[in-house]
Amino acid sequence: MQDLLARLETVEETVAHQAQSIDDLNRTITEQWKIIEALKHGYAQLSDRVQEAETNARVSGAAEPPPPHY
């Protein structure tokens, strides 16, 4: 009977550690998801700004002045 109780205690400890690991992984994934969403949002804004700058450059048609080191 003692052997069975010891085995049960080992299983309970293992399950508790696994539950903690799952919680830690879930928290990490949630944080990474938030970072990815922020990066996607920033990328979309930057892409829009680049596209707008390209459109404005084509519309103005003026040649870009040479850089100051020329």
Task: Describe, in plain words, how this protein is organized in 3D.
The protein is mainly α. It has one helix at 2-60. The termini are far apart. The mean pLDDT is 92.
Fold topology:
Blueprint (H helix, E strand, L loop, with lengths): L1 H59 L10
Order of helices and strands: H
Oligomer status: single chain
Shape estimate: rod-shaped
The total of beta strands comes to 0
Mean pLDDT: 92
Concise summary:
By secondary structure, the protein is mainly alpha-helical. The protein has one helix spanning 2-60. 84% of the residues lie in helices and 0% in strands.
Based on the model shown, name its key terms:
70 residues, mainly alpha, 1 helix
